[in-house]
Each structure stands twice: as C-alpha cells, then as structure tokens.
Amino acid sequence: MEELIILRITGEDRPGLTASIMDILARYDVDIQDIGQADIHSTLSLGILIRVAEQNSGYVMKELLFKANELGVNIRFQPVTIEEYEAWVSRQGKNRYILTALGRRLKAKQIEAVSQLIADQGLNIDGIQRLSGRDSILRPMEKTRACIQFSVRGTPKDNEALHAALLKMSRDLEIDCSFQTDNMYRRMRRLICFDMDSTLIQTEVIDELARAHGVYEEVAAITEQAMRGEIDFKESFTQRCKLLKGLDVNVMKDIAENLPFTEGVDRLMYVLKKYGYKIAILSGGFTFFGEYIQKKYGIDYVYANELEIDDSGHLTGNYVGEVVDGRRKAELLKLIAQVEKVDLQQTIAVGDGANDLPMLSQAGLGIAFHAKPRVVANAQQSINTIGLDGVLYFLGFKDSYLDEKGRE
Question: Given 197, 266, 325, 389, which residue is catalytic?
Fold first, then answer.
C-alpha cells in the first residue's frame, strides 16, 4: 500500500534547503507527484506532493521533522485520498490561460478586482508570478512599472462579459489586463508589427509637417476624424496631403531628428532585437520618418506612404503608390509572416488608431496602445497605463530575465 502526502514547508530560504529535503525522500525511494516553490522577500513556500510506501511514511515524516527543526523552517503534512488526487489529475485537461495585470503601481484593490473576476468566471488560479522588478522605496524609479501574471485554468463562463469587465477595470482602476490562451504560440511569438505615429512616436508626423507649413488646425481636425474612424483613412490621407503642397522637404529632416519617442521604446527595441524578433513598421505615415526610425533601431521592415516631391524640392500635395491604410496593414502583416515563415498566431501587432484594427485583429496578439476608445473596445488587449515596453510583460518577459540595459 502507498500513501499520498502533501508537504508544506515555510520559513527563511537558504541555499541547500530543498536538497536537504530531497535527500531524505530519496533514501526512502519516494515518488514526487508534484512540486512547486515560491520565494517572497527571502521567505520560502515549498509544496511537495509525495507518494510513499505505507511502511515508510512514518519514518519519512519523522526525519523531515528533525531536518525542519535543524533548518529553522516549519513543515506540515496533509494526507491526500486517491479520489482527491484523481480529481486533481482530471483538471489537467482544462483550458489554461494567462492573465497579465500591469500598471504604474498595483495595490490590493486592483489585485482583489482581478482575482474576483477570475473567480466570477469560474476559473481557478494555479499560480501567481511577479514579472516586474523590485522597486526601491528610498530611490524609486521615475516612471514605475508593476506587473503580476496569473496562471489560470478552466473555461470562462462568458467571454464577452470577461472582456467587458477587463475594459471597465482598466478605466476605473488604472490597470491594464491581458487575457491570453496559454499555448505554444504565446511562448513563441516571432514577428511584431508597429504602427508609427502615436505608437512608436508621441506625435502624428503629418501634424508636425502641417504645423511647419501653417496648416496645422485644418490637418489636425482631419487626422482626429480618421483616428476615430469617422471618415475613410484613404480619403483623409488624400485631403491632408493636398494641404501640404509647397512644403520644403528640408523641413522633414529637422522633424525626424527631433521626433518625441514614446516611453519605453528604447528598452522594448533592445529586448526584441536581443531575443531575435523580426520587427516591422506598418504606418499610414511617411517612409522618410519610418526609415529614420529603422536606422536608429535596426528594424527589419518599413512600409509607409511616399510623398511626391517636385524638381525644386517641394511637396506637390500628392503621394506615390498605394496608400498604406488599415486593409493594407493587415495584408502586409500576413505577407511578412509568410516571408519569415512565421505562423500568424506567432505575430504581434501594436497600434492606436482605427486604421490599425484590421492588423490588430489579424495578429495572434493584437495590442491597442494608448488608443482611442473605439479601438480599445475592439482590440484583444490594450495598454493605457505605462509605456510601450509594457508589451514585454504581455509576452511573458520578467525583468529578471533582462540585463541592465533591458531593465532600464
């Protein structure tokens, strides 16, 4: 006969503690059915489910108690019935998800809201992990980041209600939540496509060109209509280009050299390149600025719009070639994925405007970044509280995985 016993070991962590426990179990040829360990502020919480011969269980527990006393930790024993064990095994077939919660700071009220939502949807939390690094109280970061990842299991009762609740939570509690199926694609993303204006940079370049040309108000009004999805992007683009007629192209160089990059872009690009991601800019903006950013960060692909220039070096008010609108962005995402031999489920798209929705919905992971309400409501995931490097947490990166430059 055999017994199933859960060992719960808590106390101050130290090197060799787990090895000492395993040394005892090994001497009695104990089977390890499950094991998990967490370390919070040097406090150990170690759980081990063992299967041990009935005639040895008393000796095992006695030796473990002596060892725990020697190590200065607490140990508790809980018997498990075969029925309880088999019920636990049967849950392995249930769907698994990752819910990532991030913000400038995460307080108890936010964690309570997330965990209550998980419970309301009939899901069970298997594990909780902090992805963000430790923040000094005496020397806090200028722009803090906090991220916790929940591993959950089960089947949501209502996916639409879950999505709506996450949106409401984002608005009310200043927290962003990503809910993803935990499968091999989530762990093996390979291609990421970015919108440029108001995503990689904190401006709409066409507005900057318009400001330099004295037609900012007219262009900005059309830009806002397009971003809200009130008018067709191609139509709005054509109207705005005409307003730029006569602008000296030398102005474009000055604007490019002073682009206001979005918080977190340096860190994000460094990590993506370091870990071998293919990176693309798919922009309704202009190739001149896309290529400037490409050179700065070593980006692999740039697709944007080409402004027509006359012989005197001034804009004609027209553009060359096909407009990169929402439909074209989605097509380009699929095309680049084919060229790179990447499954669509391994792709990521990040953008802020209505013309980004087609590629956000096409990608395996679509992220609305500081986007308009309509875009947030229709995107799979969104980031509104922190910088663009928040994307790394949705990909499962821990700050502790990264070197010093990647943690900046």
Answer: 197
